[in-house]
Amino acid sequence: MRCLDDKKFMNLKEVQNTFHTELDDLYGKEEVDSFFFILIEAFYKVSRLNLAMNPSATENDYELIFNALQLLKQEQPIQYILGETEFYGLPFKVNEHTLIPRPETEELVEWIIKKEPRFKTQSLKILDIGTGSGCIAVSLAKNLPKATVYALDISKEALKVAKLNAELNDVKVEFIEANILKADTWNTEFKNLNFDVIVSNPPYVRELEKQQMQPNVLNNEPHLALFVKDENPLLFYNAITQFAVNNLSQNGMLFFEINEYLGKEMIQLLVENKFADIVLKQDIFKKDRMIKGTKKV
Question: Which H or E element spans position 275?
């Protein structure tokens, strides 16, 4: 790789070629191109089209992009390198204390927003459990302006990021630092509130599934938000479902993002807790990824 002392003699196309030389074996050509164009847009406000029209374009300082190249070689996610990402058309800050929002979770948000037309016109109370970056809560607050949105997380550091994201997107969300697994604190933390919608994307990756994960996820994203023990994979779902039994209003809805391998177990969980109108929904990759149920009794 050409050193930074030579950067003044390089143009952006040459920097792109360096990216391919250094990263293609690790990520593949198409993904490396994607990284490169995201970075030059973020750092230099140069779009892919701009570069195509002016292939000899140069910048004064390549330190940022070469630092990013080194982090990519260490398989750090580009979202953490930039400190931001996009979710449901909105900007979000992210760091090592928060999961990187994923397209499957966007599908969950869209399902909630579009499932019931009344959601857009009624003054709902919504609770997002395990909010992380706040992507679900903030997106719902932005798209359902009549709703009062609450968001819970056990991580103080994640809540700092979530609060920044609420401010960034100009929405009001009531944030709660609490452990949903501690049932004896529920009345204290939630002041006996009832909710019309409860949604959660809790930890659901079993320890046995770690070997299927990419190193950039396994080595960077917070394990607290990812993993559960093999012997109790529904730990959070059991607790949240029980909370919903006690704290959902009549005809209130419970939405989950789930482990693709545990769809049948999730249906059984909601049936046992007397939820009705249960729907197991696949994501765009045809994997069982979401479930919802309605409280009738």
Answer: strand 275-282
Is it the case that residue 255 has pLDDT exceeding 90? yes
225 contacts 132 by C-beta, under 8 angstroms = yes
Name the residue among 233, 217, 274 with its Cα closest to residue 79. 217
Name residues whose C-beta falls within 8 Å of residue 151's C-beta, 6 or more positions apart in sequence.
127, 128, 131, 134, 136, 137, 162, 173, 174, 175, 176
Residue 45, by phi and psi: left (phi above 0), alpha (psi -120 to 50) or beta? Answer: left
CA-to-CA dists, residue 293 to 26, 28, 86, 173, 251, angstroms: 42, 41, 28, 24, 9
Take residue 130 and report the two structure tokens written for it: 């395990």
Calpha distance 131→222 (Å, rounded): 13
Strand partners, 198: 127, 254
Decide: residue 156, CB within 10 A, 0-12 exposed, 13-18 middle, 19+ buried: exposed
pLDDT single digits (tens) 177-210 = 999 988 888 877 777 789 999 999 987 766 666 5
Q: Which residues pair with 197 in a beta bridge?
A: 126, 253
CB 137 within 8 A of CB 162: yes
CA distances 20 to 42, 69, 76, 82, 104, Å, are 19, 10, 17, 20, 29
Q: How far apart are CA 69 and CA 43, in angstroms?
A: 13
**DSSP one-letter string for 216-242:** HHHTTS-GGGTEE-TT-TTHHHHHHHH
Q: What is the chain's length?
A: 297
Q: Which two tokens stand for residue 151?
A: 């968001």
d(CA 75, CA 27) in angstroms, rounded, equals 9
- Cα end-to-end span (Å), the chain: 66
Handedness of CA 72, 75, 76, 78 (dihedral sign): positive
For residues 17 and 8, what is the distance between their CA atoms, to the nearest angstrom? 16
User: Can you give the pTM of this predicted structure?
Assistant: 0.87
